[in-house]
Design a protein that fits this description.
This protein has 252 residues and is α/β, with parallel strands linked by helices. It is built from 8 helices and 13 strands.
Length: 252
C-alpha cells in the first residue's frame, strides 16, 4: 500500500506556481499510487457547483487520470471546498467525507480530518460552518453564475487568510491539534492526519501518531504512507516551469 496525503493548496489560477507544481506532482505519481487523500482546501473556492469551472478543469482532469490508472481518491471537505457533488462522487468515483472519518491502511485505523473542527472553543466558526453547509445555502449557490461565485470566493479567501494568520500566530497548531488528536486516538485509532493549520509536523503520541500536513502554497509539503510508515516530505517546485509551452502540456 502506498498512499499520499495533501491539503491546503488553495488553488486559484492554472498559471500560478503552486497550481503548476501540483499538476506536475500528480503527473509524476500517476500509476504509482494506490490511494490519494485530499484533506480539504485544495481549491480556493468550490462550493455546491455541479460543473467544473475553467480554472479547475486541469486539476480535475489530473485526478481523473490518476483514477483511471488505479488510484483510489478520498476527499475530506474543507472550509473552502464543500458540497463537492457529482464531479467527485460520479466522475472520479471519489469517497467524499464532509466531516472527516476513518479509513483502513494495512489494518491501521487512521482518522482523516481537515482540522477546522479541532478547536472546541471556536464556537462562532462552528455556527458559521453549519450555516454554510445548509441545504438553503447550497441551493442559493447553485443559482449564481461561476464568475460571481469566484469573485465572492476570492474576497472570502482573502479575509479567511488574514484570520488564519492571526489565529496561527496566537495559537500554534500543536497546542490545538495535540489534545484533539489524543481524543481521536483514544477512540481506537492508531493515527490521525490533518490539515488546515499550514504547519507541517509529525508527533508520536503514545502508541499513536499525529501527522499535520502543512500546505501546498509555499511549503509544498505532503505525507507518504508506505511499508506501514508515515513520512512527511516536501516537493521541490523549483524545477516547475511556468512558461506557456509547459502549461499547455497539462491543459491539452
Amino acid at each position: 500500500m502506498r498512499a499520499l496525503f495533501l491539503a491546503d493548496a488553495h488553488l486559484r489560477k492554472p498559471s500560478d506556481l503552486n497550481y503548476l507544481a501540483l499538476l506536475a506532482f500528480l503527473d509524476e505519481q500517476c500509476g504509482k499510487t494506490d490511494l490519494l487523500v485530499l484533506l480539504g482546501d485544495i481549491f480556493e473556492f468550490w462550493i455546491g457547483k455541479e460543473t467544473v469551472t475553467d480554472n479547475y478543469a486541469p486539476l480535475v482532469d489530473a485526478f481523473e487520470r490518476m483514477h483511471q490508472q488505479g488510484t483510489k481518491l478520498v476527499y475530506v471537505e474543507g472550509n473552502h471546498d464543500f458540497h463537492l457533488g457529482p464531479v467527485f462522487t460520479q466522475r472520479l468515483n471519489c469517497q467524499v467525507l464532509p466531516d472527516g472519518g476513518s479509513i483502513d491502511l494495512d489494518g491501521k485505523k487512521v482518522f482523516l480530518a481537515h482540522g477546522d473542527l479541532a478547536n472546541p472553543d471556536d464556537t462562532g466558526y462552528r455556527y458559521l460552518r453549519k450555516f454554510l453547509r445548509s441545504n438553503m445555502v447550497r441551493f442559493l449557490i447553485r443559482t449564481l453564475p461561476n464568475k460571481l461565485l469566484m469573485a465572492i470566493g476570492d474576497q472570502a479567501g482573502n479575509e479567511s487568510r488574514k484570520s488564519s494568520v492571526e489565529q496561527r500566530r496566537n495559537s500554534p497548531a500543536i497546542e490545538i491539534l495535540q489534545p484533539y488528536a489524543e481524543t481521536i486516538l483514544a477512540q481506537g485509532h492508531q493515527a490521525i492526519v490533518t490539515g488546515h493549520y499550514h504547519q507541517p509536523f509529525y508527533k508520536k503520541l503514545g502508541d499513536g501518531e499525529l501527522i499535520a500536513l502543512g500546505d501546498w502554497i509555499t511549503q509544498y509539503s505532503y505525507a507518504v504512507y508506505k511499508d506501514h510508515t508515515f513520512t512527511l516530505q516536501s516537493y521541490s517546485a523549483a524545477s516547475v516551469s511556468t512558461d506557456a509551452s509547459t502549461r499547455s502540456s497539462y491543459f491539452s
